[in-house]
C-alpha cells in the first residue's frame, strides 16, 4: 500500500469539515467566514473530540498562499478610476477613522498591560472594517442604493489601500523591535512611495499592454497561468525589496484589473482564491483556544466595546468632517462598527514576524466574531439614534453643522488653485520617481557593467549618453510649457497679477528637477565640472525643450499609459450609453464655440494669425474670421485681422476661459457677442439660411494605408491639405481634445476633423473617405 503524504490527508479533513460548516452557516444566513473559523477550531489542536491535522507547518504555508490570493483578488476588484471617483469624503473619513482607531487600540493595549508592538498591531487590527460583512448586511437589510451606502463603499475602497500601506509600515516598525527613529520612519515612507509610484507607472504601461497584445493567443489555461505567474513574480520582487508578499499580490492584481480581459481573469482566479482563502480562514480558527479566551474574557469585552464605540465616534466624525450631513455621517458610522478579514491578515503578519504575543490572535478573532453578529443591529440602530440625536443636540449646534456641511458641499467655490496643485504634485512625483529610478539604475548597474565587466573605453561617457537618451522624453515632459496644466496655469495667470509669483515658483520647481537630472548625467556619470558642466546642462536643456520629436515620443508613451488606465471604464461607459441609445460623440459637449467682435481700437488689428498665436497662447483655435468683405474658414497663419472682423473661436470651456481672461488683462479690445455654445448646439443650429456656418464633423480612421500614419500633426499640415481643423483624436479609450502639434498619428487612431463641403470633396478625391 503506497504512503499518502500528510498534507493530502490534512487538506482532505480541512476541506470536508469546512464544506459542512459553511453549508450550515449558509443555511442560517450567516457569513461564510465564520463557518471557516469554526471549521478551523474543530480541526485544530484545541478541539479534542475530532481528529486534528498532523502537520501544522504545511497548513501555515498554505494559509500564506491564501493571503496572497486574497490580496490578489482584492486587487483584481480594485479600480484606479473608482479610487479617483470616490471623492474627498472617503479619504478624509478613512484618515480620521484609522488614526482614531490606531490611538484607541494602542491606548487599550497599553491599559491592559500589553507590549508596545502588541498595542501597535492591535490598533491596526481595530482600524479595519470588514467589506464582506458590510456588503452582506446591506443586502440582507435591502439598503443598497441609499446615498450613505455609496459613501461607505468609497471608504472601504480607501481602507483597502490604507490597510496595505499600514502592513508595510508595521513590518518596518517590527524590524526594529525596540522602536524606530523618526528619520528611519520617514525614509521607509519615502522608499514605499518611490516603489509604489514606480510600479504603478511601469506596471500600468506594461501589464495591460501585454494582455492586450497576447489576448488572441491566450485561452483560459494560459490566461490563468500567466496571471498567477505575474502575481507570484511580483510577490517575490516585493519581498526581496523588503516589503510584504501581500503588497506585491495586491499591486499586481490592481495592474491586471486594467487589462481588457480583467473580468475573465477575475472569474478564472476566483475558485483558486476561494480554495486558498478558505484554508487561510480555517488556519485562523485553529488559533482559537477556548481556555485562552476564558482567561482573557475581560480584554475581549474591552476591545469589543472599544471597537464599536470607537468606530461609531471616529467614522461618524470623519464623514461629518468631510462635509456630509449629520444623517449620512451617523448611518456611515454605524455601518462600519466591526472588524473583519483584513484584521486577520494583519494579525498573521505580526505572528509571522514574531513580534506579537500568541494570545492576541485568538482574542482578535473573538472580537471579530462578536462585532460581526452585532453589525446588522448597529445598522438598524442608526436611524433611531439619529432621531434621538436631533432631540438632544442644541439648536445652535445643529444650525452650525448645517452651515458647515452646506459650505463644504458648495460647488461654486474657486477650485483652480487646488486642481492645478494636485495635478502639478502628481506629475512631478511621477517624473521625479522615473528620473530617480533611471539614475539609480545607471549608477549602480549600468556604469559598473560598462566599466568593470565589459571594460569598454569611455564607459562613463557611453553610460551618460544612454542615460540621457532614456531620460530625454521624461525631461521634455518636465520642461513642457508652464506647470504641466496649461489651461489652469493660464486661467490663474490672467485672473490676477498676484498669482504670477507663485506660478513662476512652480515653473522654477520643474526647472530644478530637470537641472538636477542633467547635473547627475554630466557631473556624476561623465565627470564634467564647473563651467563646462553648466554649459552642457544649459545646452542639453535647450535642445530637449525645443525638440518636437521628443515631445511626440513622450505623448506616445503618455497616451498608451492613459489608454491602459481608462480603457475599461470608458468601454463600460460607452456600452451604457449604447444601451440608453445615446450615440452623441465625446467632443460634442467638451468643445465650445464663441463669437468675438473686434473693436475699432483693438491692438490685434493688422496682425496675422501667426503673430497672434491663439492656439499656442490660449489653447483655442480660430475656426472662422468674418470681415466686411469676406468670410474665411480655418484661417492660415498669413491671414490678417482687419477692422470690423468677427472671430469664431473653438476650444474647451477652460481654454475659452483663458482667452476671456487674456482679453481683460491684455486689453485686447474684443467683445464676446453671446455665451459660448457647445459644438453639439452649434451643429444643430446650422440651417440653410446661414450657409457660412454649415460646418461638418467627420471621424477618419488612421489605417496602415493612411498618408498621415507615422507623421506628427504639425508635419501633416491637415489644415491646408484637407481644408479642415483637427478638433480631437481617439486612441483606444483615450480621448484628446485639440491634440498637441507634436502628437504622432498611430494605426487605428480615430481622428476627428471639422470643416465644410470643401473638406468633404478633398477627402473623397484623395480616397480618404
Q: How would you summarize the topology of this molecule?
A:
Layout: H1 6-27, H2 32-43, H3 56-77, H4 80-85, H5 87-111, H6 116-126, H7 131-140, H8 147-175, H9 182-213, H10 220-240, H11 245-256, H12 262-286, H13 290-295, H14 297-321, H15 326-335, H16 341-353, H17 360-392, H18 395-408, H19 416-453, H20 459-478, H21 486-495, H22 500-525, H23 530-545, H24 548-579, H25 587-590, E1 591-598, H26 609-612, H27 614-618, E2 621-626, E3 631-633, E4 646-652, H28 653-665, E5 670-672, E6 677-678, H29 679-685, E7 696-701, H30 713-716, H31 718-721, E8 724-731, E9 734-737, E10 750-755, H32 757-765
Antiparallel strand pairs: 1-4, 1-5, 1-6, 2-3, 2-4, 7-10, 8-9, 8-10
Helix pairs in contact: 1-2, 2-12, 3-11, 3-12, 5-6, 5-8, 5-14, 6-8, 6-16, 7-17, 8-9, 8-15, 8-16, 9-11, 9-19, 9-24, 10-11, 10-12, 14-15, 14-17, 15-17, 16-17, 19-20, 19-21, 19-22, 20-22, 20-24, 21-28, 22-23
| Helix/strand structural class | alpha+beta
The number of domains is 3
Number of strands: 10
Q: What's the pLDDT, averaged over the residues?
A: 83
The CATH architecture of the largest domain would be Up-down Bundle
**Major sheet description:** 6 strands, antiparallel
Task: Give the radius of gyration.
Answer: 31 Å
| General form | globular
What is the highest CATH level, the class of the largest domain? Mainly Alpha
Helix content: 55-70%
Strand content: 5-15%
Low-confidence stretches: none
Instruction: Report how far the terminal alpha carbons are from each other.
Output: 76 Å
Helix segment tally: 32
Q: How is the CATH topology of the largest domain named?
A: Na+/H+ antiporter like fold
